[in-house]
Amino acid sequence: MAEHVINGEGKILGRLASSTAKILLNGESVTVVNAEKILISGHVRDMFSKYKQRVEFKDKANPEHSPYYSRRPDLFVKRVVRGMLPYKKPRGKAAYKRLLVYMGVPKNIKIAESKIKIKEGSEVYEKLISVSDLTAKLGYKTGSG
Q1: Is 125 exposed, middle or buried (0-12, 13-18, 19+ CB in 10 A)?
Q2: H or E stretch including 29?
Q3: Which fold has domain 3-138?
Q4: pLDDT tens-digit map of 90-119
């Protein structure tokens, strides 16, 4: 079982998530580092309103059983990858368990040149927002305060 380490810095979220999901479904494990530096393409206003609606959604009948979207960048990215997996099936749940997402780079992980090619955001798109900026707008507070 191979392990892949993907540096998310400057990568587009959708492209990174889809290629990560494909690798996970092949039975390999994936670690994504620098989750807060991943970019989302599109108008900032549109991205903010789309994710704000998802984060604040509450079911009227039973608000405690509503879907949960985290405001923390690493869990936010993990949830996006989960959306590209067949999560309700055993194969998808097993693949999701092989995914690790970190903000920054932990000391025990070495970043090597990845064989997985994902386009950089700056070379393709003009309108970009980083995951850390989006989650900060959604209410994530960095630091302990």
Answers
A1: middle
A2: strand 29-33
A3: Ribosomal Protein L13p; Chain: A; (3.90.1180)
A4: 999 999 999 999 999 998 887 776 666 676
